[in-house]
Design brief:
The chain is of the alpha/beta class. The protein has one domain: Ribonuclease Z/Hydroxyacylglutathione hydrolase-like (Metallo-beta-lactamase, Chain A). It has four helices and five strands, in the order ββαβααβαβ. It has a five-stranded mixed β-sheet with strand order 1-2-3-4-5, with no helix packed on it. Helix 3 packs across helix 4.
């Protein structure tokens, strides 16, 4: 989505396989990525969702300027430090965790 000269990319539920999300988010000012599973998730939940390490790799490959984690679930709440550690292995840029009704102005 482009608005006011800024590009916002949004990922829904995806396991992060392939290069589709990297292409979609290429050079975006903001990538909003779902954070539905913690690192180490397996089975069906991992088949449907990308863990933090994959989110970080995608954000880095896409050269996004800022990353917001949304779609947080009970299994990821309280694991912000672990999530951030995994993302930081690949992505050094601004990172924020979204909660209901948060606003993230683009500068």
């Amino acid at each position: 989505m482009e608005a006011g000269g800024k590009v916002i990319a949004f990922s829904g539920d995806t396991n992060g396989e392939g290069e589709g999300l990297v292409r979609l988010a290429a050079n975006a000012d903001l990538l909003i990525a779902h954070n539905a599973v913690p690192e180490g998730a397996t089975g069906v939940e991992r088949a449907l969702h990308m863990p933090p390490s994959v989110i970080g790799q995608i954000a880095a490959k896409a050269h996004v300027k800022s990353l917001v984690l949304s779609h947080r679930m009970l299994r990821t709440l309280g694991k912000e430090a672990q999530t951030q550690t995994e993302i930081r292995k690949s992505y050094p840029g601004p990172l924020r965790f979204a909660s209901d009704l948060d606003c993230f102005p683009l500068r």
